[in-house]
Amino acid sequence: MSLIVQKFGGSSVADAESIKRVAKRIVETRKAGNQVVVAVSAMGDTTDDLIDLAHQVAPLPDPREMDMLLTTGERISMALLAMAIKSMGHDARSFTGSQAGMITDARHGAARIVDVTPVRVQEALDEGAIAIVAGFQGFNRDSRDITTLGRGGSDTTAVALAAALGAEVCEIYTDVDGVFTADPRVVKKAHKISRVTSEEMLELAAAGAKVLHIRAVEFARRHGVTLHVRSSFSPNEGTWVVTPTEGEVMEEPIITGVAGDLSEAKITVVGVPDTPGMAADIFTIVAETGANIDMIVQNVSAAATSRTDISFTLPKTDGEKVMTALRAAQPGLGFESLAYDDQIGKLSVVGGGMRTSAGVSAQLFTALKDAGINMEMISTSEIRISVVMRADILHHALQIVHTAFGLDGEAEAVVYAGTGR
Amino acid sequence: MSLIVQKFGGSSVADAESIKRVAKRIVETRKAGNQVVVAVSAMGDTTDDLIDLAHQVAPLPDPREMDMLLTTGERISMALLAMAIKSMGHDARSFTGSQAGMITDARHGAARIVDVTPVRVQEALDEGAIAIVAGFQGFNRDSRDITTLGRGGSDTTAVALAAALGAEVCEIYTDVDGVFTADPRVVKKAHKISRVTSEEMLELAAAGAKVLHIRAVEFARRHGVTLHVRSSFSPNEGTWVVTPTEGEVMEEPIITGVAGDLSEAKITVVGVPDTPGMAADIFTIVAETGANIDMIVQNVSAAATSRTDISFTLPKTDGEKVMTALRAAQPGLGFESLAYDDQIGKLSVVGGGMRTSAGVSAQLFTALKDAGINMEMISTSEIRISVVMRADILHHALQIVHTAFGLDGEAEAVVYAGTGR
User: Fold this and answer.
1) What number is the ipTM of this complex?
2) Contacting residues of B for A64, CB less than 8 Å apart
3) Phi-psi region for residue A334, left (φ > 0), alpha (ψ -120 to 50) or beta?
4) Of A212, B183, B241, B262, which residue is 20 to 30 A from A404 by alpha carbon distance?
5) Measured between CB atoms, does B120 come within 8 Å of chain A?
6) Model confidence pLDDT, tens digit, residues A19-65
7) Dihedrals φ, ψ of B299, to 5°?
């Protein structure tokens, strides 16, 4: 008997009808002879509604109480899901993060999993029941308080349970058929990828592919959990995300997919004195704000002035606090000015085969040049090349590049109703 | 420093504005130099909405999962209340029933409190924080599952905490000024009672007074907890519900108040063979349905037939299941027929002074006779007389009796907006 962990997001359990549909899907997996553990998100917009409510009673809600509040969301969906399954004649039991042994550190709102002890989940499985676990939440042993894992938390819950229970596969249900060579809402001829390495998936997620949360992919890679990203609206196979074991050789395509990201902004620190350690000073100040920096480019110093410009990209949501911190540090650092630009788009091409294939950068840059698209920043990893351009041209560039690398499918991709995630 | 337990019901925390108002009230109590523990219900109609949702996914929701679902209601309100208090600059910490040590038996949906170990609540108080506890919920040690206490559960949570923590008083906040000599929405000249014994309050609650739940009053009486029923909309003193200690003599008014109840129905078992043990057989069958029987009247047997009629009252909500059970037992019991009447009203007069004053029954019966009101059933306790009549005449009878016993106040009672409870 195989053990399968299934994760259903908020759009899959948005109302009573959806919950019954998901329950049926879970029961089918059970009837096929598998043990089933389910990680479930809060229904539809529940989490956002609760956040709104919190801000109505307190301008800066206490983080401990915020977690107490938000964790009700998954508790509602998991209880309803368990009821629905039971009323179909199958045994099911729901567990909060705490009951399922999701032990975290004490960082309310963004807790990290430090241990997973799913004793009660295992007991339920041993007794033949389907276990439904609240995604996104955990428990800190020292404070005895409830915590939440932050965005992408439910994916991470599912993967952590799959690792702790030794599941054969962790199925991530979503409203698209799997991972695509590009966002099918932007690139019409994007096609589903049937198999991708966790390393490539990590780069795709980091580059803006929304289908899987980067944190869950990283957890899966570290613990060797196989993911299967698939649609909750169809029985089709989705995308398998696999982690080759040491020594295992996989034939990887040169380019797996392209991804676009409009969520970042660019900050340029203009006229930085070109003295040793100045970049370190700047990025220490940035790090202290807790912001996640993505790309960094330092222009060559203009010899005449001994001054240089440093640009970096970061999530728009972190923009204000970083600008504020840098402005406060301006007298000490002695730079000339700051520029903030939130009209940028980032295009990335990802593929494990890049390691052994020369000329991918040249091919990308040529395709963009031929289309008259100007590149503002470039950064590369072993299996990814990212380029920053104007935001309004990103979608067009994604189409161009998708075609240039021969990724276009035969037909247009099917996009289901729903709002991504 | 005194310890005060305060209980706020669902209508007191129905929206963000109400929550902020309640938070302010709690903070005032804290600033007056008291330690404060708060038991809070779910916001407004949350519980009913969750029950609806459950019935949409499962016709007969699993009781364990129902409790998992419903307990989110108080968790939302307690977290919001704690946030609101913190944002006013006072320390506050919310606790679930489980965290607050409300240990119950395993009867999901109607659990009984078996132990209260509020260690974390006491810790919070010791550290100067206000403790906010979810009403209505507990935890079963054997199954490690979440339970709910059933209707009136939040009042009971408050009283149980007050008993366990040795609170000076347990304040029950409601949308009326306290306990009245009659329902002020029915009897315009009803006036607030400033002091009532827990025994009288118990009879009033059993007789239909909605302001306090009978279970909470009983818990308070057993543990000597003083209750103060008061309005969350005004700073006025409300009604003190006290339990005189052994030997303490209290001057009690002959009549404390009158109460009406339209929630009951009457079942008559017609033509019961007048043989020994027949009543026992009937009420064994009724008891097996779990219904709560109130009054029982057996008519004198008509000598010619050796048959008798037995009537009893019970909550309308239990009517159908009891009728079904009796119909099934008709062949065995050999009675002639069953009659169901849900158009009855029960009027009760309650007063501790009845014990030592003769003639109260006579006074009541005379008042009703003078008004042309027919009595269908009568039952009495040491400090209560209840009379069943036609439902449509109950409100008129309450006015008559309130006046007859000299309870009318000088002015009309103020009734706040709101729906009772």
Assistant:
1) 0.80
2) 93
3) left
4) A212
5) yes
6) 999 999 999 999 999 999 999 999 999 999 999 999 999 999 999 99
7) -75, 155
